[in-house]
Design goal:
Elements (H helix, E strand, L loop, with lengths): L11 H30 L7 H4 L8 H25 L5 H20 L6 H26 L14
Family: Belongs to the SYS1 family.
Keywords: Golgi apparatus, Membrane, Protein transport, Transmembrane, Transmembrane helix, Transport
Subcellular location: Golgi apparatus membrane
């Protein structure tokens, strides 16, 4: 039968592998956006600081490009949620988990608590965009009609 519902069972290995996949896609695509926008287009040197440093300057061009990289990456992460997680109810969990792990990685990288308001606003915006767009994409897929190939028979 073509149309079937996904069985909800507790599968820790599936959940962990989905978290790892979403996290890897998040960092790989963010790195690609930074290479494309900051290095190729603007001519800035490639640095991991753009990903993990807390200083997000909205006044200079490189800061705006970093913001653009993060916001564009949110669109890719939402698409990753749609492709990997495929559940509307889990989009909030996975988007918050991915950005929480980014927060922990940034905390370890900087060895300090983030005090920049622009960093908090940027990351909360990215979580929101990723979650809402991921939920929208998953909901569109879940709301498609389920094909019923067999004729219904009732024995009375």
């Amino acid at each position: 039968m073509n149309g079937s519902f996904r069985i909800s069972v507790w599968d820790p290995s599936l959940i962990i592998s989905q978290i790892v996949a979403v996290q890897c896609i998040m960092y790989v695509t963010l790195g690609l956006w930074i290479i494309l926008l900051l290095h190729v287009i603007a001519g800035h040197p490639i640095s991991i600081d753009y990903i993990f440093k807390y200083q997000v300057n909205v006044k200079d061009v490189s800061g705006r490009l970093v913001i653009a990289c993060f916001l564009l990456n949110s669109l890719i992460c939402a698409t990753a949620l749609w492709a990997i997680v495929q559940r509307t109810k889990l989009c909030l969990d996975f988007s918050v988990t991915a950005h929480f792990l980014h927060f922990v990685a940034s905390l370890l990288y900087n060895a300090a608590w983030p005090s920049s308001a622009s960093w908090w606003v940027l990351n909360l915006s990215c979580v929101t965009i990723t979650c809402v767009l991921g939920e929208f994409l998953c909901m569109r897929t879940e709301m498609k009609s389920i094909p019923l190939g067999m004729s219904a028979r009732v024995d009375l």
